[in-house]
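thought: fold this chain, then report.
action: predict
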Amino acid sequence: QIRGSRARALPDRALVNCQYSSATFSTGERKRRPHGDRKSCEMGLQLRQTFEAAILTQLHPRSQIDIYVQVLQADGGTYAACVNAATLAVLDAGIPMRDFVCACSAGFVDSTALADLSHVEEAAGGPQLALALLPASGQIALLEMDARLHEDHLEQVLEAAARAARDVHTLLDRVVRQHVREASILLGD
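observation:
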């Protein structure tokens, strides 16, 4: 069901609503961030764009899919962690998707492409890339870079992020299959 105004309801597909929040104690800086700050709004928009590319919204017209993400501890790669956790939640809720959405961050630090950047590596100020991938098709759901990077290094950083996202897919797929097996046993199927 649509929360709020019915005018927002889409007649041909579901509306995907994503909200991101971060606990005040999630980072070392203890900065109070109200629920509508720029970072939260931007992250919510990125998550919505990512999941609109993966969820089969046309199967649920005139409805709304809400994804709420709250970060309790942030040590880099926040977007990727949110995407991977939300993917598991969407799958567990039984919402049909084209594919898993797997994400990873990458950067270029000391002339080396690194995947899954920590807070210290992010704070170093080098170029960073966030990648959300639909691994089965190889489609990119979201790609964002927050600093300049020479084009000679872009492919190297992009490949590091894509390889890590495919590794995340392997792990998530194994966990989901194990969960389904255990649920089938409990239900006696």
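thought: worth noting. The longest helix spans residues 151-187.
final: tokens above.
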